[in-house]
Here is the input.
Amino acid sequence: MSTIHIALLGYGTVGKGVYQTIKTHQKRFKAILGKEVKIEAVLVKNLEKHQLPDPDVILTNKFEDIISLPKLDVVIDAIVGKQPGFSYLSQAIKRGCHIITANKQMFAHYGRELLSLAEKHGVSVGFEATVAGGIPVIQTLRKLLSVNHIKKVHGILNGTSNFILTKMREEGCSFSDALSLAQEKGYAEADPTNDVEGFDAFYKAMILSEVVYGKQPDWEKVRKQGISSITLEQIELFSKFGLRFKHVASLEKTTKGIHCSVKPVLVSSSHPLFHVEDVQNAVSIDADIVGNISLQGPGAGMFPTASAIVEDLIQLETERARPDEGADHASFAHEPLLTWVLYGEVKNLEIPESIEIIGKINAKALLVLAKEESIENLSNKIKGITVYQLLGDFTFSGTEESRFPSAHSITGS
Amino acid sequence: MSTIHIALLGYGTVGKGVYQTIKTHQKRFKAILGKEVKIEAVLVKNLEKHQLPDPDVILTNKFEDIISLPKLDVVIDAIVGKQPGFSYLSQAIKRGCHIITANKQMFAHYGRELLSLAEKHGVSVGFEATVAGGIPVIQTLRKLLSVNHIKKVHGILNGTSNFILTKMREEGCSFSDALSLAQEKGYAEADPTNDVEGFDAFYKAMILSEVVYGKQPDWEKVRKQGISSITLEQIELFSKFGLRFKHVASLEKTTKGIHCSVKPVLVSSSHPLFHVEDVQNAVSIDADIVGNISLQGPGAGMFPTASAIVEDLIQLETERARPDEGADHASFAHEPLLTWVLYGEVKNLEIPESIEIIGKINAKALLVLAKEESIENLSNKIKGITVYQLLGDFTFSGTEESRFPSAHSITGS
Here is the structure.
C-alpha cells in the first residue's frame, strides 16, 4: 500500500491535535484513499520542551531537516506568525509538496502569493482551518460562488471575544473579569491583544475577502476595532431593548470597492448572529440566488481545527468521501436517558420504574427522563397520551402543582 | 468554445428556476468552465400549459425526444414522484449522461440504485437539491465524513411545517388557519399531506441516512409523525416554559442499527434548532472530532433549489469555483441607509440633516438612520461618542424620554 508522507510544522495545541487525528484515522485513510498517511517529522522551536509518542518520527528544530526528507508529499503548517511560516511553505511548494495551513496571520499576508506559487508548481493549498476552525466556511463559499454572487458576509470569527461579550451580559461582570475567565478556560492567551483588539478577526476577514472577491481591501481603510472598550453599562442598557453586542467582521462589495469592517455591532434577535454565544463562531452569507445561508460551530480548539486540516488532506486526494459505513463506531453502546414530555390524561397514569419523573408541568403534562425503549413500551400500552422528546438544555423550575419544589436542570439529547 | 448540452425534465417552480438561472449565468459558465451551457429540450406533461421564452429550445411531452437528442451531456430532473423519474434517469445514465435531481421521493427510493448504475457507466449524480434546498448539507456532510464519524443529525427539513408551527405560536392561531396562510403564501400545496404528515421530511431523512451511514433504516421501523395533531393549547402551554415545537428528523447510529425518527419534538433555547423559524430549514450535525456544526438557510423555493442544482452542474466539471472577481455586480449602486446607535454625550450633539433620528433610547444613546458616509463624517468631527451599527430588525417602542411616542419598526443591514 502506498503512503502519503507528511511533515508537521509546530507541535502546540493545533499541531498535537493534527498528530493525534492522523494517528487515530489510519483505517479511515486506507478505506477512503487506499493509502497510509505517515508523519515523517515534526518541527518545533525548542527540542527540550517536546516529546513525541512515536520513536520513529523525527523531532527537529531545523527546517532543513524537514525540506531534505527523502520522502515528502504534504507539509502541514501549525505554527503562528507571518515568518518563518511563509518562507517554509514557499520552499515546500517549490519542492513539489502540497501545503495545508491553519496560520491566519501568515495567510492573510501571503495567501495570494502562496496560491499562485502553488499553481505554478502544480500543487494544492488547503486553508480551511484558517477561518472559523471546524466550520467548512471556505468550501461552502466556493460552492455558492459557482452560481451566486455574494452580496455580504457577516461573521463572528473570534471565539474569545464572543465568549467575553456573552459572559459580561449573562453574568453581569466587567470586561477584565470576563477576560480572566477566558484565560482560565484556556480560550485567551496570556497576551490577549490579538483576540480582543480584533487582529485575529481581521486576518480571517482578509482571507474571506480573497476567497469571495479574489482580492483584499486596502488594509489601511478597514475599520478595525476590538471589544475592550465595551462596558457592562452599555451591555445592560442595550439588553433591555433586546439587543446584543457581537464582534462582527463584515465584507461587502460596493461601487467603491470592497468594504470591510471588523468591529462591535448591536444585533437584534431577528439576525442569524444574535444566537451565536460563548466561544462559537458563525458566518452569515447573503447570496443573490440562494438567499441567506448561515453556518455555526466551533471556531477554534485542538480537534475542530485538526479536523479541518485533515479534511483538507483527504480532499487533496479525493473529492468524494465515502459514507460512514463502518460498524465499529455506533455512537453509544447503551441506550442513553433522554428527556420527554408526556401530554394528555397523565393524572392517573401508572409510570413504570424505568421512567423517572422530573416534574409536573401542569395537570396534563409530565416531564420525565427515560430510555427510548421504555417510552415506546409505555406508548404501546396507553391511549390518549402523546409523547414528545425534548431537545436542548431545560431547567424546570416547577409550577404550583409541581411534585418537586426544587429546580431541576436537565439536558435533552 | 465547447458546449454542455442539457435536458430539463419538468417546468414547474423548480424547473423554471433552473431554466432562468442557466440563462442568466452564461458569462459565469464561460469564466469558470470555459464552456457554454445550453438547454436543448424541456420535458413537460401538458404541452398546452407551457411556453418557453426561447424558440430554439425543444418543448416536448415525450421522453423519447429527450433521450434521442443528438447531443446530450446532463439530464436535470425537476419533476416529482417515484416514477417516471427513476426510469427516465436510468435511461439517461445508460446513455452516458450525468444526472442532477431535486426529486426527493424518487431519490429516497432509488438513490442507491442510481448511484451504482452511474458508477458503472462512469457518470456523476448530483442530488444536493433533494435535501434542504439551497443549504449545502450533502457537501458539508461529505467533507466532515472524511475525518469525522457522524454521531447524530437533527434537521428541520420541511419548511411548510416549520412555518405553520411558527405562525401558530406567534399569532396564536389554529393549525388550520396557519395552514391556510401557508397555502395563501404558496408554501403549501392544495393537498398538504406530504408536508404536514411528515412524508417530505421522511424522504429527506432517508437520503441523509444514505449519505451519512451508507444505508437506510428499515422504513417500517421509522417513527413518522406530522404536525397536524398539535394544538394551539399545547403550543401555548410549552411556550410558557420556553419550549418550542419543531418538526425534527433525527438520525443516529446505535448498536441496534440506524435509528431514525421524523416527529414533532420540544426544543429549548440552548439547542441550535430553537431559533430556526418560518420556512427556514436547518441541520445540526454532531461529529466526533469537530463537535456540533449547524447550517441554516432556505429549504425550498424556486431560486434556492435552482442554485443547488446549478452548483451541482458546475461541480460536475470543476471542483474549484473561482472567486467573484467580476466588477459588474457591486451589491448596490447607491449607499444604503443603515441603522446606528450613537452612544455617549449625545444630549447637545448637533446632528446633520443627512442623519435621521429614529428615537432616543436614553440620555446617552440615540438611534439613527444614515448612510455609512454620513456617520463617518460625524465620527471624525465629534469626540466622546461611540457609534455602533445595528444588525437585524429592531422595533423601537420608545422610552419615557422618547421623542417619538409611536413605535418605529426598522430594519438593520
Chain A touches chain B through 110 residues (CB under 8 Å). Chain A is about 35% helix and 25% strand.
